[in-house]
Design a protein that fits this description.
single chain, 349 residues, alpha/beta, FAD/NAD(P)-binding domain, 2 domains, 7-stranded mixed β-sheet, 5-stranded parallel β-sheet, 8 helices, 17 strands, binds flavin-adenine dinucleotide, binds iron/sulfur cluster
Length: 349
């Protein structure tokens, strides 16, 4: 009989992997280091998701409910994998509580870490309380409290959203595009305008990457229906005049310096590699790619493969990914793991 599949990480990718295996009658053990499932959308309190507009607590919360209600999925929260040994069909994992789990294969769905804006000090985060991140604005909306200036609770009249904070920035070693933050920011800008119709919302950008079908749904809609203003600019610094925040930079279309006051400045933070990846790479003996994401070995024959036979990877563990793609990758990695656990060679071999 096939041993259970070990799934590490209970975000959208891991939940999808577990649910897919349950659907074909295959047992799994889902190990999540936090005390609840759901990954970034639940743990960070996201509001309405792109592109469906569903609340994260309903959409991803529904995935959590399905997994927790499934008898074939052994959920272990508050745990990590401390040791991992063996070969496809016959692995043993030792968990942080000392328990041992037998597994036929493993799927790493360990996701990403939000960029910490203190690493971009010139843009005011950590110095001025009204400089916040997109995750904080998501939480303001999802909690029902609404978008307010943290310093004194007032409704902002002018909000600037700065794109690419912790992405596409060679000076701080983040060369990648985080893929979803342009679209998420356009979406948040519309949500702010909806809640506070008198608030002026500006988005400062290098390029706009509302990729695929998101161009008209978010970029054009936010301008044409919600009157969000876009400024192509290079930002120098965020300071304060004692009353308001001041965003200084250069308008790169007209090549002139611009200095504009705001009540609130929002950093559209990027997706860093999971800070645990060095440890995960060493415990599972899988290679990381140059920026520290878990390396995928093959893009066409078996996209979920890592450098170790029988260990697969899905979702934002591989690099910036959307929820939809993470869910799809979780399902396909689960099927590859199921095959490997039964001794079927990976498709690319
Ligand atoms: C501000 C912001 C808003 C976003 N909004 C959207 C949106 O509206 N729509 C969209 O498509 N995408 C959105 N995204 C992207 C979305 O967050 C990711 O696509 C999604 O979270 C990836 O899912 P995942 O399961 O791969 O990883 P994660 O959600 O990161 O889940 C990984 C899980 O693994 C656990 N874990 C980590 N390390 C270990 C370990 N060592 N052992 C055990 N468990 C571990 C974590 O605790 C976590 O539960 C947004 C991103 C940001 C930054
Ligand atoms: S998606 Fe947009 S905001 Fe995010 S890193 Fe790419 S270009 Fe910058």
């Amino acid at each position: 009989m096939t041993k259970p599949i070990l799934i590490v990480g209970g975000g959208p990718a891991g939940l999808s992997a577990a649910a897919s295996l349950a659907a074909i009658g295959q047992k799994s053990v889902l190990v999540e280091k936090e005390d609840r499932l759901g990954g970034a959308p639940i743990l960070s309190g996201y509001a309405k998701l792109v592109p469906t507009g569903e609340w994260a607590r309903d959409a991803i919360g529904g995935m959590v409910d399905r997994v927790e209600g499934e008898a074939s999925i052994d959920v272990r929260t508050g745990q990590t994998v401390a040791e991992f040994a063996g070969e496809p069909g016959n692995f043993t994992a030792k968990l942080s509580d000392g328990d041992t789990v037998e597994a036929g294969a493993a799927v790493l769905c360990t996701g990403f870490t939000h960029f910490d804006s203190v690493n971009k000090p010139e843009w005011g985060f950590g110095t001025f309380p009204d400089v916040v991140t997109t995750t904080q604005v998501e939480q303001m909306i999802s909690s029902g409290e609404g978008v307010r200036c943290p310093s004194d609770g007032r409704k902002p009249e002018r909000v600037a959203i700065l794109l690419c904070v912790g992405s596409r920035d060679r000076q701080i070693g983040r060369e990648w595009c985080s893929k979803i933050c342009c679209t998420v920011s356009s979406n948040l800008a519309m949500e702010i305008r909806e809640e506070l119709p008198d608030c002026h919302v500006y988005i400062y950008y290098m390029d706009i990457r509302t990729f695929g079908l998101y161009e008209d749904l978010y970029y054009w809609k936010s301008q044409e229906e919600f009157k969000v203003k876009y400024i192509k600019a290079r930002i120098a610094e965020v300071t304060s005049n004692g009353e308001r925040l001041i965003v200084k930079g250069e308008d790169t279309l007209v090549k002139r310096p611009i200095t504009i006051p705001f009540d609130m400045v929002v950093h559209a933070i990027g997706m860093d590699p999971n800070i645990d990846n060095m440890l995960i790479g060493s415990i599972f003996d899988v290679a990381l790619q140059q920026h520290g994401h878990i390396d995928r070995q093959d893009n066409y024959g078996g996209a979920a493969r890592t450098s170790r036979d029988g260990v697969f990877v899905a979702g934002a563990a591989t690099g910036p990914e959307t929820i939809d793609d993470s869910i799809n990758q979780g399902a396909s990695a689960a099927m590859a793991a199921f095959a490997a656990a039964q001794g079927v060679p990976a498709a690319a071999e």
